[in-house]
Amino acid sequence: MTWIRAESGAYWFVATLAFLGAAMWESVRARRALSVPVERRWRNHGVLYLATILTSMAVYRTSPILVAEAAKASPYGLLNRAPIPVLVRWVIALLLLDLLRYAVHRASHSVGFLWRLHRVHHSDPDVDVSTGFRNHPLELLVLQGIYLGAVAMLAAPVGAVLAAELAGVFQTFLSHANAHLPEWLDEAVRLVWITPDMHRIHHSQELEEEQSNFGEVFPWWDRLFGTYCAEPAAGQEGLITGLKGLRSARSLDVGFMLTQPFAGRAAPLTDYHRDQSL
């Protein structure tokens, strides 16, 4: 029960620290000018985030830590079927859970139903720390369901699941920060961790660039599976983020974000950037 009691406090502590830290970083080392005032972005994305969290809590009434705690004695868990040293189990669990996030994120750009939900995140005309809040409630339900199932199947160590959760929430705000590291430092850091300049490319209007840099925490999967993009064609200063046809202040409306998955026709998966029916 110790892990369960620690989860909530640790999660919100890290989330608050990461958000405030990224926000302060943006204020002193902003990478780009925003097209919509930051106050409106934070307010509306915050409302969407609250709706998303409340929906998840109402539906699942559990968490990855509770699932890991329940599954740790399971004889069917993949990591429980052999006498694997604890440290090795931790490493395997962390890597596999992050690989799962990469795979699901990549699928969210190629499966029609998942893309309809995920395009809410990509329709943000800018990218800043509040973009980490911009996820449709139904998308979180789908992703959380997949993640909870994976934790149960793996019987991942409870501590490793907590570490993965904290790394994920920390990276959510760090990778979306409208900030940047010195070029030499960015190149070094992105060997082991995803930087804002690396992830921002994934939010490009250009399809080839958006179909890159799917990693959530670690950058190795993109390099391994050939989806890594080091630099946008137009450079960071010339990069245009968002989705074509949706780059307007309207895309910050809470109602628009909640209804977007159900509006307009589903664009062909290879050509969805040209869908301007919204």
Rounded to the nearest angstrom, the distance between the terminal CA atoms is: 48 Å
| Overall strand count | 0
Number of domains: 1
Derived structural class: mainly alpha
Evaluate the radius of gyration: 19 Å
Fold and architecture overview:
This protein is an all-alpha fold and 278 residues long. It has one domain (2-267). Helix content is 58%, strand content 0%. The protein has helices at 2-28, 38-60, 64-71, 86-107, 112-122, 137-154, 158-175, 183-189, 196-202, 207-210, 220-224, 235-238, 254-259.
Characteristic terms for this protein:
278 residues, mainly alpha, 13 helices, globular, disordered C terminus
Please provide a brief summary of the model:
The chain contains 13 helices and no strands. With 278 residues, it is mainly α. The chain has one domain.
